[in-house]
Amino acid sequence: VNIRETNDAYLLDVVAPGFEKNDFSLNLDKNILTISGEKKNEVKKESEKEIRNEYSHRTFQRVFTLDEKIDGQKIEAKYVNGVLTLNLPKKVEVKASVKEISVL
To answer: Which pLDDT score is estimated for 65?
Structure first.
Protein backbone atom coordinates (compact mmCIF):
# COMPACT_ATOMS: atom_id res chain seq x y z
CA VAL A 1 0.00 0.00 0.00
CA ASN A 2 1.26 3.44 -0.92
CA ILE A 3 -0.27 6.56 0.60
CA ARG A 4 0.11 10.01 -0.96
CA GLU A 5 -1.21 13.39 0.17
CA THR A 6 -2.44 16.24 -1.98
CA ASN A 7 -3.93 19.57 -0.91
CA ASP A 8 -7.46 18.14 -1.11
CA ALA A 9 -7.15 14.42 -0.36
CA TYR A 10 -5.14 11.37 0.61
CA LEU A 11 -4.63 8.81 -2.17
CA LEU A 12 -4.23 5.20 -1.15
CA ASP A 13 -2.89 2.74 -3.77
CA VAL A 14 -3.25 -1.03 -3.26
CA VAL A 15 -1.36 -3.20 -5.75
CA ALA A 16 -3.57 -6.21 -6.54
CA PRO A 17 -2.82 -7.65 -10.00
CA GLY A 18 -5.09 -10.34 -11.37
CA PHE A 19 -8.14 -9.18 -9.45
CA GLU A 20 -11.30 -7.71 -10.94
CA LYS A 21 -13.21 -4.81 -9.45
CA ASN A 22 -15.96 -7.17 -8.24
CA ASP A 23 -13.38 -9.08 -6.16
CA PHE A 24 -12.96 -6.15 -3.74
CA SER A 25 -14.95 -5.25 -0.65
CA LEU A 26 -14.60 -1.78 0.84
CA ASN A 27 -16.30 -0.95 4.14
CA LEU A 28 -16.27 2.14 6.32
CA ASP A 29 -17.56 1.65 9.87
CA LYS A 30 -17.31 4.90 11.82
CA ASN A 31 -13.62 5.74 11.28
CA ILE A 32 -12.39 2.22 10.38
CA LEU A 33 -11.77 1.58 6.67
CA THR A 34 -11.46 -2.09 5.68
CA ILE A 35 -10.20 -3.10 2.25
CA SER A 36 -10.38 -6.76 1.34
CA GLY A 37 -10.09 -8.82 -1.81
CA GLU A 38 -10.87 -12.41 -2.66
CA LYS A 39 -10.03 -14.17 -5.91
CA LYS A 40 -10.93 -17.78 -6.62
CA ASN A 41 -9.64 -19.53 -9.72
CA GLU A 42 -10.64 -22.99 -10.71
CA VAL A 43 -8.80 -24.55 -13.65
CA LYS A 44 -9.58 -28.06 -14.81
CA LYS A 45 -7.33 -29.89 -17.27
CA GLU A 46 -8.32 -33.26 -18.61
CA SER A 47 -5.85 -35.82 -19.93
CA GLU A 48 -6.50 -39.30 -21.34
CA LYS A 49 -7.01 -41.18 -18.07
CA GLU A 50 -7.08 -38.66 -15.29
CA ILE A 51 -8.54 -35.33 -14.36
CA ARG A 52 -6.31 -32.80 -12.68
CA ASN A 53 -7.84 -29.97 -10.66
CA GLU A 54 -5.89 -26.90 -9.66
CA TYR A 55 -7.37 -24.44 -7.21
CA SER A 56 -6.01 -21.01 -6.59
CA HIS A 57 -7.44 -18.89 -3.81
CA ARG A 58 -6.03 -15.47 -3.00
CA THR A 59 -7.28 -13.18 -0.27
CA PHE A 60 -6.06 -10.10 1.54
CA GLN A 61 -7.38 -7.61 4.04
CA ARG A 62 -6.05 -4.25 5.22
CA VAL A 63 -7.59 -2.09 7.93
CA PHE A 64 -6.96 1.64 8.37
CA THR A 65 -8.10 4.06 11.05
CA LEU A 66 -9.13 7.36 9.49
CA ASP A 67 -8.76 10.58 11.41
CA GLU A 68 -11.31 13.36 11.60
CA LYS A 69 -9.76 15.16 8.60
CA ILE A 70 -11.23 12.61 6.15
CA ASP A 71 -14.72 13.07 4.69
CA GLY A 72 -15.92 9.46 4.78
CA GLN A 73 -19.08 10.21 2.79
CA LYS A 74 -17.06 11.20 -0.29
CA ILE A 75 -14.53 8.34 -0.52
CA GLU A 76 -14.14 7.03 -4.07
CA ALA A 77 -12.38 3.95 -5.43
CA LYS A 78 -11.26 2.81 -8.87
CA TYR A 79 -9.34 -0.21 -10.13
CA VAL A 80 -7.07 0.28 -13.15
CA ASN A 81 -4.22 -1.92 -14.42
CA GLY A 82 -3.88 -3.96 -11.23
CA VAL A 83 -3.94 -1.00 -8.83
CA LEU A 84 -6.89 -0.17 -6.59
CA THR A 85 -6.81 3.57 -5.85
CA LEU A 86 -8.90 5.13 -3.12
CA ASN A 87 -9.46 8.87 -2.99
CA LEU A 88 -9.94 9.93 0.64
CA PRO A 89 -10.98 13.59 0.44
CA LYS A 90 -10.17 15.95 3.25
CA LYS A 91 -13.01 17.78 4.96
CA VAL A 92 -13.39 21.40 4.06
CA GLU A 93 -12.15 23.41 6.98
CA VAL A 94 -14.53 26.03 8.18
CA LYS A 95 -12.53 29.19 8.65
CA ALA A 96 -13.80 31.91 10.89
CA SER A 97 -14.72 34.91 8.83
CA VAL A 98 -12.78 38.03 9.52
CA LYS A 99 -14.94 40.82 10.69
CA GLU A 100 -13.76 44.39 10.86
CA ILE A 101 -15.02 46.24 13.89
CA SER A 102 -15.25 49.99 13.66
CA VAL A 103 -14.50 52.18 16.65
CA LEU A 104 -17.31 54.55 17.59
So the answer is: 95
